[in-house]
Amino acid sequence: MNLTPSGIVKFLDQYVIGQADAKKVLAVVVYSHFRKLGLQRDSIALALGKSNVLLIGPTGTGKTLLCETLSHAIDVPFVTADATSLAQTKYVNEEIEVMLMRLVSKAGGDMEKAERGIVFIDEIDKLKSAGGQAGTSSGESVQHALLKIMEGAPVKLGTGQTIDTSNILFICGGAFVGLDNVVSRSHTYGFISLTDAVNQQILERLNSRIKPTDLISFGLIPEFTGRLPVVASLQPLTEALLVRIMTEPENCLYRQFRAVFESEGVELRIAPKVFSEIAALAVEYKVGARSLRGIFEEMITPILYVVPDRREIRKVVITSLFAEASLLTE
Ligand SMILES: Nc1ncnc2c1ncn2[C@@H]1O[C@H](COP(=O)(O)OP(=O)(O)OP(=O)(O)O)[C@@H](O)[C@H]1O
Ligand SMILES: [Mg+2]
To answer: What is the pTM of this model?
Structure first.
């Protein structure tokens, strides 16, 4: 694969629909990560520092999917950890150590390779500073524990080896529910727009930018936000994007169910209108693409119930979510 930023985006496009901005940001960061490793001993490389990334966006819009897909695109060890489970244990440092050990094993035991890997920490917004429960760690103390490794530090592993995290790229993801209220309260660039119409787009971009102060108001500690210099936002999925999610990717719902029917010797055909109807419902459920499967299965299950008993059926045609499907025998 072509590992330029646009090559990475092209790969992501096969599986993740929409989210062009977030894809670009991620691709550039990952590309720079590679370049920097190439320049390892260069003083510029050292000065470049690390561009750990924060992925923000509503639930079910592709944050986790983006990172998982990315891990298939590039040939570096990649591990995923869940901030919620880090906060559920008293032994945060041990958990972090286990995560780094997983990275080493992903690298086939090659420490140097592991030290250039990528760690994805999901659900980072659950580490809001608020009192932890007994037997768990408070979000804030997990943030402190993560700070150290994100900054770059030698960590002693259970195996006796030491891993240096200075060149590991950290990507954090979270839905940050309620952050939009914080952001809309802190807009400040409005007045410039009167003077220069050409720059309206740049202005809008600046205005929609999530600032470190917004994240701090949300509940991340300043030192933690400071180590996530790059923020990529994912957008809510529109009806049109939801339709594409059901029908375009190689492993999309439509293809999955066509394969299920095919194994019964039956052709499944769903009219385009049906996908729009499902997407319209899904938008109302407000959980992004997550509700698509449920709605889809509800529509298909009654049909899948009868098809195996009726061997004469050759074709199933669905023309509306709100009408009976036609079971055809020719
Ligand atoms: N942009 C997208 N393109 C294709 N599929 C998507 C997209 N967004 C979501 N999906 C589908 O929805 C599922 C859930 O998405 P994902 O796990 O990435 O959500 P998330 O943004 O991480 O949400 P959360 O904040 O709740 O963790 C994915 O497994 C995928 O099937
Ligand atoms: Mg997720």
So the answer is: 0.85
